[in-house]
Each structure stands twice: as structure tokens, then as C-alpha cells.
Amino acid sequence: MSTDKREHIDKREHILTEAEKLFAEKGFDGTSVRDIAHNAGVNLAMISYYFGSKEKLLESLIELRAGYTIGILEELNKDESLSPWDKIERLVDYYVDKIITNLPFHNIMHQQSLNARSSEIKDLIMSIKLRNVEQVRKIFADGEQKGIFRKIDMEMTMGTIMGTISQYTISRDYGCRVLNIDRTHEETYRTELALRLKAHLKQLLRAHLGIK
Amino acid sequence: MSTDKREHIDKREHILTEAEKLFAEKGFDGTSVRDIAHNAGVNLAMISYYFGSKEKLLESLIELRAGYTIGILEELNKDESLSPWDKIERLVDYYVDKIITNLPFHNIMHQQSLNARSSEIKDLIMSIKLRNVEQVRKIFADGEQKGIFRKIDMEMTMGTIMGTISQYTISRDYGCRVLNIDRTHEETYRTELALRLKAHLKQLLRAHLGIK
DNA sequence: TTGAATTAAACAAACGTTTAATTAAATTTT
DNA sequence: AAAATTTAATTAAACGTTTGTTTAATTCAA
Prior knowledge:
CATH superfamily of the largest domain in chain A: Tetracycline Repressor, domain 2
CATH architecture of the largest domain in chain A: Orthogonal Bundle
Number of strands of chain A: 0
CATH topology of the largest domain in chain A: Tetracycline Repressor, domain 2
Number of domains of chain A: 2
CATH class of the largest domain in chain A: Mainly Alpha
Largest interface: A-B, 49 and 49 residues
Oligomer: homodimer
């Protein structure tokens, strides 16, 4: 029956979600397969049974989570009714929301960008990032060509967008201290951070790109 | 004699330098004490003998490397002959050079910001970052008060500076691909990256702060 | 009755750390 | 200055855990 198949998939996803939390909190190498099995409430051997290995589990997680970002960017690019600057504003909104609602996964991507030792995972992350970057570059190139954007270093500007968002999403403790946000409420922290990030990035990019 | 003392300290520093390379490449948890001992050419037991533990070794490394940053920032702040904008330009030059000439250490600080499990290290990194941030904030506040800088979100702007620099220093492979820099020569990569980062950040901040 | 899901137990390897013995250097005593 | 003594540096080996993965037996569902 289809319910069995569903249950099977749900269990796989459940393990991945628990692994995601642990990887984000303690790092990939700092998380043991026993940790994952215990937190997911499954037997130790099930991780090898489902995923083959700890590394393959991470690959499965990345493939699961990174799937649908590119679709949104492509759609955004296709939309002829939006001006390049509109697209940048939507891009900022989208990225900020996406990262802040997926903090654990973003954390994992970050740590793997730094220290991935498996070349499969390196390549996987690289291809995901490059595909996204390519879509963003198109928006900048279009705006520049149409004379709407001032001439800028596009690659560096993309780095500024992603880097700024990352800076305070990497460590909640640090973000709360510097931004003077209440440390205790996860929810208020996220909404406050999202608001400030969006406002700041739009103001920054507007000035940088020379939008009136 | 003093030479003996020197040799002793040199050996400690040698171990720290080798550990730094390994931590940066494979992560703290991905690096074994045997790795470090082997790369440094010392007996395994010497790491415990000198540092007490692997974690204490990391603390020693951070304390060694993070020592003198704050001094430069304080000096920069005291200098009355510089305008706030001059200070920002020097700040950018200083940070870019510092991070690019200390990529492995910066990598380690980054990964520990993400996933440090020892609260001693968490606190250590937090205090280092906060002290630096405080000095940078003073420059922005001074410029704003004097009416030289437009009113901006200071904390977010600091995040933009640090985040932009981090973005392409995290992964050389990624940086080379996006920025179209030759992957094979470490030296040209560093100088090219430093040049572009400085130019971009100054142009960006000039527009953002409303400097004519 | 067949195949998949689940389990407890075991596996060898790698881990951080400690031990006890030995060598080298520094200090004190002759 | 030489010998004796104390302290520090270095070593190989072992410690007990923990690691990721596998096995072989068992339960469950088709």
C-alpha cells in the first residue's frame, strides 16, 4: 500500500531532520551516528540501512534541502513585469527569509563550505552555489546593461548580500549581543533579524547601485 | 640560558602552527592529536605535556593569534588627524590584509563561531569579536555624530564588512570559480582577492555612508 | 512463504589521554 | 671544575572509550 511507502519516506525524512539539528549544533564530525539514531528514536543500524553511511546521509540531506531554491530564482528572472531593481528587492526578501527559516541547514552548508573532506560533498555544494550565483548575476548584468544600475563589481556585490546575511545567522549568541536582541525568544530573534537584514540590504544596495 | 627558553617556545609555536593548518583544512573535530603530533614532528604525548588537552591547544592558538588586532583598532581610533571616512578606509585595508594573510586562523575562528562545543572557547571568541566590534562602532558613531556619515544601521554595516570579506575567503575553490581567478597560484589569488575586496568595500561604503 | 524492516551484539579501527621509563639539561654540592 | 643530584623533556606503550559499520538473528508485513 501507499501508506507503507509514505511511512518509509517519513522515517527517512525524520532521521534527516534530526541529523540536521545535530550537525548544525555540533558539527558533522562532532555528531556520532549513535547520536542521530538516538535522537531520531531508531536503531543504530537503520542509518546504514537507509543511507549507507554517515557521509551519504549528509549528501541525502543536502540534496533534499537544496532542491527548490534554484526554481524560485529562475522564475524571478523570467518575470518580465519586474524591473531589475524590483528583482533585487525580491531577491533580498527571498534569501533572508529562506536562510532564517532554515538556519540549521544553512549552518551545515556553511561548515561544509569551510571543511568538507569528502569531494562528493564539496562538488555538490559547489554546484548548488554556482547555479544560484549564475541566476543572481543575470539580474545584475541585466540592470547594468539597461543603464538602471551603476557599474559595480557584480561578484563582490553578490558576496556582500550572502555575507551580510550569514554574518549574524552564524551564531545566535553573537547576533543577539551585537544587535541587542532578546536572547531568550528564538521567534522574536528571527523576525527582528529578518526585518533589519532586509531593510539594511535594500538601503545599502540602493545606494550602491545608484537607484533614486 | 635564554636560548633554551627560546627553543622551548619555538617548539610550542611550531606545534600550534601545524595544528592551525590541520584545523583549518579538516576542522577541529576532523583533526586528531596524532595528526598534529605527526605533522609537527613531535611525540604524541608532547601535546598533552605542553597544552594539557586538544581543546586547551585550540585555546592557546586563539589567544596567540588574536592578541594584537585590538591594539591596531584602538590606535586607529585615537588618531585625531584622520577623518571618520579615512578611518573606515584604513579599517577596510587593515581587515582585508589581516584576514587574507591569516586565512587558516580566520577559517578556524569561523568554524568555531559556528560549532564550538566548549563554552570556554565560545566565550573566548565572543569576547574577541565584541571588543573589535566596539572599536568599529565608535568610528561609525563618530562619523554620524559629526554629520559626515548618513544615518545607517551601524551593526548591520559592520556585518556587511566582515561578511563580505568572509564570503570569498571561506573557500578558495569557490572564490576562484566565481571571481575567475587562477586556481593554481595561491599568491596571485590572495593579492587579486585583496585588491577586489578593498576596492569593492570602499566603493560600497562610500555610497552607503553618503560620502561625496 | 517470501522479502523487507528491525534488532542486539559484535567488529576492528581510531580516538584523546595517561603511564612509567629514559634521556637531556640545569642546578647544587663537593 | 667535576661529580652528584634534581628537574625538565621526550619516548614507546598502553589505557579505556568512542567511532562508523557489519553481522546474523528476529520480527513484521505482503
